[in-house]
Amino acid sequence: MIKRTLVFVLLFGLVCCEEDVAPPQAEAQNPTLQGQKKLSENIMSILEHYKQEDPVGLPGAPIPDPMDIPEFSHSFSVGRMNFKNVKMYGLKRFKIDHISVDVNALKVEAELVIDKLDVRGNYTLSTWLSRSAGPYTVKLTDVDIVAIARLEVIRNGSLEAQEIDMDIRFKDIAMDFQNLGFFANMFQGMMNSVGTIVFDSIKPFVLAEANTNIRNDVNKEVRKIPKTFPNSISPLDDVMHEIRKKVRGMGMDPYKIPDYNNSVGVFDIFLTHTWLYGLGSFHRTKDVKFEFRNRTIRALLEVGTGTIKGTSNWEISLVAGIVTRSGSVAFSVDYIRSQINISQSLAEDVPPSLDDIQVELGNIQIRFDGLGTVDYAIEFGVNVLPNLLRYQIMDALETPIKMKIQEALDQVNMNKIIHENAEKLDNMKIEELQNL
């Protein structure tokens, strides 16, 4: 499960990173490779890319550089300026500040930064006095690009990318218009605003092109997914339903907890044959989120249950076993929740790391059987036993969960996984996708 999740995150980031490099022979033999680079090669190139100290761009990203901008013009009180042969340079020189993925909402938020963008072209300035023309350059520095993309389940149950919200901002702007002559001084106030006018004029085109291209690339990829989803629940919750069935099929509900003993004052307490019923009813209690920042993928997952029922046998020993009482107890736990934080560095060939795990139990209520008359055992049970059950359940769940997760993470070698599954990834057949 963890291996597949980490591979999924990498695949998610590859949607817009395909190149038109497949040879005709490969296209003929495997239609799924038409017009695209091998997926395994793409993943490996990205892993190698992020081992660099300061990675710039993304291998195979289909970003035109330079980008051709249509001609545009702007009118002033003193005349009119026309711009043609406009090109924007530097779009491929982006750096990923962070990417956040909300899996439940099928939403991706990304922020990219570019040190410098250049807009170059030719201008013509016509006024009531005269006319000038020549080349120009507008330099934008500390450029910030923010995008929010969403997938939705449409009527037929497949996924489809929706409109992408994007914006481009910059910190500083500088410009150089050649052959202005005396216009540079005469219309200084007007010329001071020309750089911003150029940016505002090309911004809608750049955003529209990016929106269309990204949506088309995303939809091309999600159409390959053979599974359909009900539009009444999120795809993630549909997957959780499948996992619950597997957990029950593995015989983990009911779940037997190891025996427990402890001392409280002069009492020795033993809890044996403790069973929990209902662990297989777990569900997502918060949105599952992934974040990519500083060449590291971080995942946050929280799952929980509804009310859990349980039974246990208890024995109380007093004065070194001279006085003993025993019986059984039925109890309920309002909920059990587990929050897991995992990180995977792309900068080094190291396994994923379990950064933190928290297990939380709700209120415990108990009901005794077999006590008989009211005596010290009832008082003990009401005041002490709920906390002892809490310790027993926590010890039985938190440590094994942590160990199992870390054991699984230690076996994850991203490069090895990709190499071993390269053929499956490259063929992208229906059955492989279903398994993925």
TrEMBL record:
It holds the Pfam family JHBP. It comes from the Eukaryota. Residues 1-17 form the signal peptide. Keywords: Signal. The keyword Signal applies. The keyword Signal applies. This is Uncharacterized protein.
